[in-house]
Automatic annotation (TrEMBL):
<dbReference type="InterPro" id="IPR050343">
    <property type="entry name" value="RsuA_PseudoU_synthase"/>
</dbReference>
<comment type="similarity">
    <text>Belongs to the pseudouridine synthase RsuA family.</text>
</comment>
<dbReference type="InterPro" id="IPR020103">
    <property type="entry name" value="PsdUridine_synth_cat_dom_sf"/>
</dbReference>
<dbReference type="InterPro" id="IPR020094">
    <property type="entry name" value="TruA/RsuA/RluB/E/F_N"/>
</dbReference>
<keyword id="KW-0413">Isomerase</keyword>
<protein>
    <recommendedName>
        <fullName>Pseudouridine synthase</fullName>
        <ecNumber>5.4.99.-</ecNumber>
    </recommendedName>
</protein>
<dbReference type="GO" id="GO:0005829">
    <property type="term" value="C:cytosol"/>
</dbReference>
<dbReference type="GO" id="GO:0000455">
    <property type="term" value="P:enzyme-directed rRNA pseudouridine synthesis"/>
</dbReference>
<dbReference type="InterPro" id="IPR002942">
    <property type="entry name" value="S4_RNA-bd"/>
</dbReference>
<dbReference type="InterPro" id="IPR006145">
    <property type="entry name" value="PsdUridine_synth_RsuA/RluA"/>
</dbReference>
<keyword id="KW-0694">RNA-binding</keyword>
<dbReference type="InterPro" id="IPR042092">
    <property type="entry name" value="PsdUridine_s_RsuA/RluB/E/F_cat"/>
</dbReference>
<dbReference type="Pfam" id="PF01479">
    <property type="entry name" value="S4"/>
</dbReference>
<dbReference type="InterPro" id="IPR036986">
    <property type="entry name" value="S4_RNA-bd_sf"/>
</dbReference>
<feature type="domain" description="RNA-binding S4">
    <location>
        <begin position="1"/>
        <end position="63"/>
    </location>
</feature>
<dbReference type="InterPro" id="IPR000748">
    <property type="entry name" value="PsdUridine_synth_RsuA/RluB/E/F"/>
</dbReference>
<dbReference type="InterPro" id="IPR018496">
    <property type="entry name" value="PsdUridine_synth_RsuA/RluB_CS"/>
</dbReference>
Length: 232
């Protein structure tokens, strides 16, 4: 990889800015000052210092976020704060959310640079479960559990795949679905006469929202967590 591209990709500045840093002798590769922007390096093995700071090589990035309400699941928006706006130190990476949570929905959201990972998690053929905690205006019963298991028909006639409904209290539930249709959980409960007043995603695949990740907090995922998303 070209040295200027490596530095720009890892947040050291724009391509023009990093070229200036290289020209001024502010960049070292394996303890040797390099002044050529097109110098080719092995990002996995070479040690790069920029203005004395080690630049950590990142191939693909995976971030777990406890999304707060009021933030939209997008990379940019002219009217609202986005989930990418919450993490300015990762702004230079080409992150995208793996699926979406409604603006007023909280909970587990993954952002990544890995398009193949996103495709595999969201593909209907993969059947990656998504579990939500919800509070309702209205009550559900074992009859509702049976309806969810059989497949709920939405207001536009779409028949949802079977879902698992667990009743905590008559108006407090957990529901596991495999799809991600627009406002799906809310529309499923509308179909049985209930309104969702609070919604939070608590699990994707085998990955649960970490108990120590406060609302609005985020961190890079471990390899084990990344694997857990796709394997229950």
């Amino acid at each position: 990889m070209r040295l200027d591209k490596f530095l720009a990709n890892h947040g050291m500045g724009t391509r023009t800015e990093v070229k200036q840093l290289i020209k001024k002798g502010s960049v070292q590769v394996n303890n040797e000052v390099i002044k050529k922007a097109d110098y080719k390096l092995d990002p996995e093995t070479d040690v790069v210092l920029c203005q004395g700071e080690a630049v950590r090589y990142i191939d693909e990035l995976y971030i777990i976020l406890n999304k707060p309400a009021g933030v939209i699941s997008a990379t940019e928006d002219h009217l609202h704060d986005t989930v990418v706006d919450l993490m300015p130190e990762y702004r230079h990476f080409d992150l995208h959310p793996v699926g979406r949570l409604d603006k007023d929905t909280e909970g587990l959201l993954i952002l990544t640079t890995d398009g193949q990972f996103t495709h595999e998690v969201l593909s209907p053929k993969k059947h990656v479960n998504k579990t939500y905690y919800a509070e309702l205006d209205g009550t559900v019963s074992e009859e509702t559990v049976a309806k969810f298991k059989a497949g709920i028909a939405l207001d536009d006639g779409y028949l949802c795949m079977p879902a698992v409904l667990h009743i905590i209290e008559p108006n407090v539930i957990e529901v596991t679905i495999q799809e991600g249709k627009f406002h799906q959980v809310k529309r499923m409960f509308q179909a049985v006469g209930c309104t969702v007043t609070y919604l939070k995603r608590i699990q994707m695949g085998g990955l649960k929202l970490p108990a120590d990740l406060e609302i609005g907090d985020y961190r890079e995922m471990t390899a084990e967590e990344i694997n857990r998303v796709q394997h229950v």
